[in-house]
TrEMBL record:
Taxonomic lineage of the native organism: Bacteria, Pseudomonadati, Pseudomonadota, Betaproteobacteria, Neisseriales
Signal peptide: 1-18
Source organism of the structure: Chromobacterium indicum
Full protein name: histidine kinase
Listed transmembrane segments: 225-247
InterPro entries: 2C_sensor_his_kinase, HATPase_C_sf, HATPase_dom, His_kinase_dom, HisK_dim/P_sf, VxrA_SD
Length: 457
């Protein structure tokens, strides 16, 4: 039976690959609605392609400085707020009508208030539009690059992560060598049917015979009788070999995963609505009372975290088992954001630019810091270092535990103690990331070890 099942799966995969190759040949022969060179996109600063570049950079400047910057822009009078030198020069240029050369915008892509520096400059100097087009965010010039700026956030993020196939708004995007091509639904659907394929967005957790990035290519029912006979025989043998108990466990697992996926999917709509509300308040920020401005900052930060949580949960529930695509960032910048949330300090041997799964690694470190403050004793310390391709993060406190073995500690504490549940989450996430959680003491020291690449290497 295993040999028969293997032959069946091989036959399906060969059939799907042949169909995809036929679809690619048909698309290559078809004239697309629009086309843009990949090299043109690669010449842009990566920040001018990311969707989050259009939101205020709360992680770059404190909320109070952003508020002062927003208020001063409408007044343009002394005293000037304390701002970084480049940002202050730009704001003085706006207020004084100073002309900035295009080279300045090449070195400064994204403004802390959201959007490109070039876009903010063009609000006062519209005559500079021809020279500053290369320095605008793709969303700020939706007609450029075959309309890539009109892609949704998920599709634009997938394009940045290297996907070659996208379905967005009924249009099919395909990267063919050195160019991105866009085909309307009236073009690609007949070509896909001729190749024996049905294309649809890839649903998290769904079994897909031939995934094409964020698209699932399913073969249409084949016509040869031998193919149907082979499929029927193989499926019958497989169904007969599976035990009833295994089927029950699988069904329960699928139901739980479906509920989680449904909740994650349904959360995206109210999160998007909250994002629109935040934008409405931001437009009238200077009319808000001082207390409401502080509340607006907390609201904007909360909506951003909800958006990150929904996106990270989508990766966690994906069929391929990946949590998220690691993003390059300075280790010190990431540690600053974690330490600020907990009012903690850290010691870093040497700063490096690493590819980090920032959200899930931050979740693990948050749990350890929260446990140290609630169940340990001060001082709470964070030590970070990177050596030979592995990142090592330690959280220590002055308390004592009844056991210094993770397996025994989790059983003794249990989920009701809070700490036990937090450690279970950390251990499972680290396993999914390819790392590990260890415990030593006294003093109580939890260590996260994770393989990650140094960009400089």
């Amino acid at each position: 039976m295993p040999r028969l099942l293997a032959l069946f799966l091989i036959a399906i995969s060969l059939h799907a690959r042949a169909d995809v190759a036929a679809l690619q040949a048909s698309l290559r022969a078809e004239r697309p609605q629009a086309e843009t060179a990949v090299a043109a996109l690669q010449q842009l600063d990566a920040a001018l392609l990311r969707p989050d570049s259009l939101y205020p950079a709360l992680g770059q400047l404190p909320l109070a400085e952003l508020q002062a910057l927003y208020r001063h822009r409408g007044q343009c009078r002394a005293p000037w707020p304390a701002l970084p030198a480049d940002l202050q020069r730009f704001e003085r240029a706006l207020c004084g009508g100073e002309t900035l050369p295009p080279e300045w915008f090449a070195a400064h892509p994204v403004h802390p208030l959201g959007g490109s520096y070039a876009w903010h400059y063009l609000q006062r100097h519209p005559d500079s539009a021809p020279a500053l087009q290369p320095y605008l965010h793709v969303r700020e010039r939706p007609a450029a690059f075959a309309g890539i700026g009109g892609l949704g956030d998920d599709s634009l993020a997938a394009l940045l992560s290297g996907e070659r196939w996208l379905l967005d708004g009924g249009a099919l995007w395909w990267r063919d060598g050195a160019s991105w091509r866009r085909y309307g639904a009236g073009q690609w659907r007949p070509l896909a049917e001729s190749a024996g394929l049905a294309l649809s967005p890839l649903v998290d957790g769904d079994a897909c015979p031939q995934p094409l990035g964020r698209i699932c290519a399913r073969p249409l029912p084949p016509s040869p009788w031998w193919w149907r006979a082979l499929a029927g025989l193989s499926l019958s043998a497989l169904a007969g070999a599976l035990a009833y108990g295994w089927l029950q466990r699988r069904r329960l697992e699928r139901e739980r995963r479906f509920v989680l996926q449904m909740l994650t999917h349904e959360l995206r709509t109210p999160i998007a609505g909250l994002g629109n509300v935040v934008e409405d308040f931001r437009a009238g920020f200077d009319q808000l009372p001082a207390g409401a401005q502080q509340g607006f900052g907390r609201l904007a930060d909360g909506v951003l975290k909800l958006r990150q949580l929904a996106d990270a949960s989508r990766h966690y529930l994906a069929a391929d088992g990946r949590l998220e695509v690691p993003q390059p960032m300075p280790l010190s910048e990431w540690l600053d954001s974690v330490a600020e949330r907990h009012g903690a300090t850290y010691c870093l041997d040497q700063d490096r630019n690493l590819k980090l799964p920032a959200y899930w690694l931050g979740l693990c470190l948050d749990n350890l810091l929260r446990n140290a403050r609630q169940h340990g004793r001060p001082p709470v310390r964070i030590q970070a270092g990177w050596e030979k391709g592995r990142l090592r993060l330690t959280v220590s406190d002055g308390g004592a535990l009844p056991r210094y073995r993770l397996s025994l500690l989790r059983r003794e504490l249990g989920a009701s103690a809070g700490m036990g549940l937090g450690l279970a989450i950390v251990r499972r996430v680290m396993n999914r990331l390819g790392g590990r959680l260890t415990l030593e003491g006294p003093p109580t020291t939890f260590t996260l070890e994770l393989p990650c690449d140094d960009i400089a290497d």
